[in-house]
């Protein structure tokens, strides 16, 4: 059984992450199309995805705090990235009742 990993990314209000594919896992994990599971916490993000590494051709969706994104199977190797952070969109209770800094925290889980 392959180990599960969690990658943690924090984005400030000017944060971005260019279009890329997640291909660091084992060949077996990639061959099986095992899913990537991503949790968004804090500020919303404009998330890009598509079949090509071309921002102009990419689709865009806004991921808000609490959203979960799962891509696996045929969609496992899509190009994806963060185009921009939408400042001051985190739930007020999250900032008031926790030690979470303003910005976006993303937790990405996958089987390595």
UniProtKB/TrEMBL annotation:
Residues 2-112 form the Fe2OG dioxygenase domain. Keywords: Dioxygenase, Iron, Metal-binding, Oxidoreductase. The keyword Oxidoreductase applies. GO terms for cellular component: cytoplasm. GO terms for biological process: oxidative RNA demethylation. Fe cation binds at residues 20, 22, 80. GO terms for molecular function: broad specificity oxidative DNA demethylase activity; ferrous iron binding; oxidative RNA demethylase activity. SUPFAM superfamilies: Clavaminate synthase-like. Binds 1 Fe(2+) ion per subunit. Its cofactor is Fe(2+). The keyword ATP-binding does not apply. It comes from the Eukaryota. Belongs to the alkB family. PANTHER family: ALKYLATED DNA REPAIR PROTEIN ALKB-RELATED, NUCLEIC ACID DIOXYGENASE ALKBH1. This is Fe2OG dioxygenase domain-containing protein. It comes from Buddleja alternifolia.
């Amino acid at each position: 059984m392959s180990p599960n990993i969690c990658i943690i990314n924090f984005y400030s209000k000017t944060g971005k992450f260019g279009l890329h594919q997640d291909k660091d896992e084992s060949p077996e994990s990639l061959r099986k199309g095992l899913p990537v599971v991503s949790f968004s916490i804090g500020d919303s993000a404009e998330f890009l995805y598509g079949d090509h590494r071309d921002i102009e051709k990419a689709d865009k969706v806004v991921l808000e705090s609490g959203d979960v994104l799962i891509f696996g199977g045929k969609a496992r190797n899509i190009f994806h990235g963060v185009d921009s952070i939408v400042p001051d969109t985190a739930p007020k209770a999250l900032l008031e009742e926790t030690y979470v800094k303003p910005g976006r925290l993303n937790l990405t889980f996958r089987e390595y």
